[in-house]
Amino acid sequence: MDKTLYERLEEDVRFREGLNSCMNCGVCTAICPAAEVSDYDPRMVVSLVQQKDESELEKLLKSNTIWRCGECLSCKPRCPRGNVPCYIIQALRALSVETGGTQRFEKNEKYSSAKADELNIDFNEGKDDYFKYLYNE
Ligand code: SF4
Ligand code: SF4
């Protein structure tokens, strides 16, 4: 029998390292620079993944959500439960590529965040500007 998406995620050491038990506290989202400038929400990702709902996992793997994390690892030391959303995201990205579900940042993707407008950052130029902002380049 084919493995489920969740079982395939569990084969990834980053996933096993990254997911303990999420209590939905939102600390990761509060400190996440990607969440600050877009509608990305690491809490939602972790919470959704731990529910092991295959149809939701499939949707997540096909979404742009998993490509919004800047892999800054700010979330690693902050989670009170020892989760690392960044590692979970890395495992999700790998599985998304494997399963053909990936939709990387589109050049002209529009970011809806009001914060982006406030910061006067032109995200319509694509991910390069986004990562420049994240890493202060
Ligand atoms: S900080 Fe940890 S426990 Fe809190 S929402 Fe994020 S992953 Fe879950
Ligand atoms: S590694 Fe990703 S999820 Fe974690 S704080 Fe940085 S941008 Fe947010």
List the helices and strands and how they pair.
Elements: H1 5-10, H2 13-18, H3 27-31, H4 33-37, H5 42-50, H6 54-62, H7 85-99, H8 114-119, H9 127-135
Helix pairs in contact: 5-7
This protein binds iron/sulfur cluster (SF4) (2 copies).
One iron/sulfur cluster binds next to helix 3 and helix 5.
Would you summarize the structure shown here?
It is built from 9 helices and no strands. The protein is mostly helical and 137 residues long. α5 crosses α7 (85-99).
Q: Which structural class do the helices and strands define?
A: mainly alpha
- Which small-molecule ligands are present, each listed once? iron/sulfur cluster
Largest sheet: none
What's the helix-strand series? HHHHHHHHH
User: How many structural domains in the coordinates?
Assistant: 1
- Say how many strands there are: 0
The CATH topology annotation reads as: Fumarate Reductase Iron-sulfur Protein, Chain B, domain 2
Distance between the termini: 48 Å
CATH domain class:
Mainly Alpha
What is the helix tally? 9
CATH architecture level-2 label:
Orthogonal Bundle
The residue fraction in helices comes out at: 40-55%
In round numbers, the mean pLDDT is 82
